[in-house]
Design brief:
By secondary structure, the protein is of the alpha/beta class. β2, α4 and β3 form a beta-alpha-beta unit. The chain is globular.
């Protein structure tokens, strides 16, 4: 059976991979080198300088392309470096339509870095495709989607937006960090670019910072490869190795993240002190039917708001947690808790945050793979 025909759980281990040519190493070695010997100027074995390409990073990029059903993968020094490369496809005067509920770092990059270069960003809810269509004009070049969104877990219909993008000749990029290709494969649904903060679920062990892009189109890939090399925001060989190692257990980790997430969402929904729970698997979650159609399960990311809580009440809860760690980031084997208003989304003005539901009392959980009874007991003692 050809490796491209493998099912997903096998692709995470074998997809895009082959034993190392030098000694047959099963796991790609860490090529900790900056440069490569040449027999004559331009005469090399496929690698000349590690900013341009490194065998360990190439192995990771091949794996990324395989698990997302793409043709070309690119690995960067962080998720934001990957997003930066996408926006560099644009020119002054171009416009971008983005979801209004997105990672604070993405918002900061768009508003505080790229707007001053003449690129305009429109932030809006993306549940209604007809409303998105009204924002499209001759200057629109890119639609930027997160689904599930961070931190409100909104679900956006990728296939419907891809139809809109193709009708108007626009690029569609999807941040697939929360879902991972275990749950959702945006390229199969019509997206042009998939982005990951591979720091999160793909790496899976909170020990690396890496970003990723995957595409199917060669011309688009060539443009992104040029930007990757010219701008130089690449990940090193050790980070590539760690991320590739993480990908090999993605399927088993995600299964447990989903199982634990379902149990904790049910616990919070039934808790008398909890007012709102945001998890795509709940039947009353907005666009739950879309989530069922485009996702294979619902993930381990959950946000909630206690009844009548204030900023201070939310802080007290997250400070009491003992098994959940109060920390930035998500997607590791360990469970994390965060307070978006003061942590991941602090760079978004309060008025803008609250328009999308990111109120001061909102708490976000990244449910890990520990014993779920321990996680529920920890929430019980913290919430009271």
């Amino acid at each position: 059976m050809a490796k491209q025909d493998l099912k997903f759980n096998s692709k995470t281990i074998h997809g895009g991979q082959k034993p190392d040519a030098a000694y047959g190493a099963v796991m790609p070695p860490i090529y900790q080198t900056s440069t490569y010997a040449q027999s004559t100027p331009g005469g090399h074995k496929g690698f000349e300088y590690s900013r341009s390409a490194n065998p360990t990073r190439t192995a990771l990029e091949n794996a990324l392309a395989s698990i997302e059903n793409g043709a070309y993968g690119l690995a960067f020094g962080s998720g934001l470096a990957a997003i930066d490369a996408v926006i560099k496809l644009l020119n002054p005067g171009d416009e971008v339509i983005s979801t209004n509920d997105l990672y604070g770092g993405s918002y900061r990059l768009f508003k505080q870095v790229f707007e001053k270069f003449g690129i305009t960003f429109h932030f809006m809810g993306m549940q209604d495709v007809e409303q998105i269509a009204k924002k499209v004009n001759d200057n629109t070049k890119l639609i930027w989607v997160e689904t599930p969104t961070n931190p409100m877990m909104n679900i956006i219909d990728i296939k419907a937006i891809s139809h809109l993008a193709k009708k108007h000749g626009l690029l569609l990029a999807v941040d697939n960090t929360f879902a991972t290709p275990y749950l959702q494969r945006p390229l199969d649904l019509g997206a042009d670019i998939v982005m990951h903060s591979a720091t999160k679920y793909l790496g899976g062990h909170s020990d690396v910072v890496v970003g990723a892009l995957v595409v199917k189109d060669k011309d688009l890939a060539d443009k992104l490869y040029f930007i990757q090399n010219a701008s130089g925001a690449v990940c090193g060989p050790m980070d590539s190795f760690l991320t590739l190692r993480g990908i090999k257990t993605l399927h088993v980790r995600m299964q447990r993240h989903c199982e634990n997430g379902k149990a904790i969402a049910a616990y919070l929904t039934d808790h008398p002190k909890i007012g709102k729970v945001y998890w795509p698997g709940l039947e009353d979650h907005p666009n739950h039917d879309i989530a069922k159609a485009q996702m294979d399960d619902f993930g381990g990311m959950i946000s909630f708001v206690p009844h009548g809580s204030s900023y201070d009440d939310a802080i007290k809860i997250v400070e009491k947690l003992q098994v959940f760690t109060l920390a930035e980031s998500l997607g590791g084997v360990e469970s994390l808790a965060g307070h978006p208003a003061s942590m991941t989304h602090a760079s978004i003005p309060k008025e803008e945050r609250e328009k999308s539901g990111v109120v001061d009392a909102l708490i976000r959980l990244s449910v890990g793979i520990e014993d779920v009874d321990d996680l529920i007991a920890d929430l019980q003692q913290a919430i009271g």
